[in-house]
Amino acid sequence: MLRRRSFVVSAATLAAGATPALRAQDAWPSKPLKIISPFPAGGTSDVMARMVAEPLTRELGQQVIVENIGGAGGTIGTLRAAKMAPDGYTIVQTGVGQNAVAHGLDPKLGYDSMRDFIHIAQVHTGPNLLVVHPGQPFKTFPELVDYVRKNPGKLNYGYTHAASGHMAMELLKQRASECPKGVKDCNGFFVVGIPYRGGGPMLQDLLGGQIPMMFINQDVALQHVRAGKLRPLACSSLQRNPLYPDVPTLHESGFPNFQALSWSGISLIKGTPQPVVDRFEATMRKIMTSAEIKGKLEAVGFVVPPPGAQAYTAFVKSEIDLWTRVIKTAGIKPE
């Protein structure tokens, strides 16, 4: 009897002495959570963050709010998030600009996207479209390439520094400067960039014919393409986009494996307890494979990414490698 009583007392003592961290993991989430979106409200990143916040609130039983901390291409909010407590209550929206391109521009960002975050789920991926003003003579992408090679430096394009469209054009310039097999001199692919401070003014100039072409996110281009105000020549994903079935990919237009995407995802801060990570990943997998999310993404031309942390982690690493190489080759510097 004495032995049994001692065992019961010892078990109770152990339970009472459980660390606050362990007890907090068991109760997670016991209070509202927030998603740090490192861009201003209203843009694509903000829309994607709010799209997942709603089902996360339902699944976790706690309010999930979106906090917008914009600035410096997403790096200000990302750096601030990296320094927050890894308790599972701060969710970080990661993406191509702040977690891939930024590393190529500045190796001393203050955070490392592979070391400081646990990548949980990719939320959206979408191509850029190479579009021209309808007043331009080019009806197809090969016609454009042929003109540029015969008239180097005579065609302009608009870009905003380090945006996904800028990166797509730099990658195209590098790939198109490689002469076709058997051709010794093709004049490369020399086009002149016109820098803009924001995508809005640049788009207005393209619609007004002040600049002839640019790469633009497919969701932004859609209404203008349908209205006949922009002519799409090529798509930067490996497969044709369902909303633009007649627009060929660069991959099928002489540049194998060409891919330049706009994307975002959801990550946690490194050091988040593993039980919390596991539950959050399972929740995000359920959300991202739901018919609700699939319908919302496909309605605006986005592709439903492969689910799971392993796939997203590998994708982020590949994007860092790609854009670091492109930026180094182009000699692009941070502003």
In short:
Helix content is 43%, strand content 18%.
Features:
single chain; 335 residues; alpha/beta; D-Maltodextrin-Binding Protein, domain 2; 7-stranded mixed β-sheet; two-stranded parallel ribbon; 12 helices; 43% helix; disordered N terminus
Describe the structure.
Helix 3 crosses helix 10, helix 5 runs parallel beside helix 12 and helix 7 crosses helix 12. By secondary structure, the protein is α/β, with parallel strands linked by helices. The radius of gyration is 24 Å and the shape is elongated. It has 2 domains: 178 residues, Bordetella uptake gene, domain 1 (D-Maltodextrin-Binding Protein, domain 2), CATH 3.40.190.150; 109 residues, 3-Layer(aba) Sandwich (D-Maltodextrin-Binding Protein, domain 2), CATH 3.40.190.10.
Strand content: 15-25%
User: Any idea what the CATH superfamily of the largest domain is called?
Assistant: Bordetella uptake gene, domain 1
Largest sheet composition: 7 strands, mixed
Low-confidence stretches: 1-18
Cα end-to-end separation: 76 Å
**Total count of strands:** 9
Shape: elongated
State the CATH architecture of the largest domain.
Answer: 3-Layer(aba) Sandwich
Gyration radius, in Å: 24 Å
How many structural domains? Answer: 2
Classified by CATH, the class of the largest domain is Alpha Beta
Tally of helical segments? 12
CATH topology grouping of the largest domain: D-Maltodextrin-Binding Protein, domain 2
Helix/strand order, N-terminal first: HHEHEHEHEHEHEHEHEEHHH
Q: What structural category arises from helix and sheet content?
A: alpha/beta
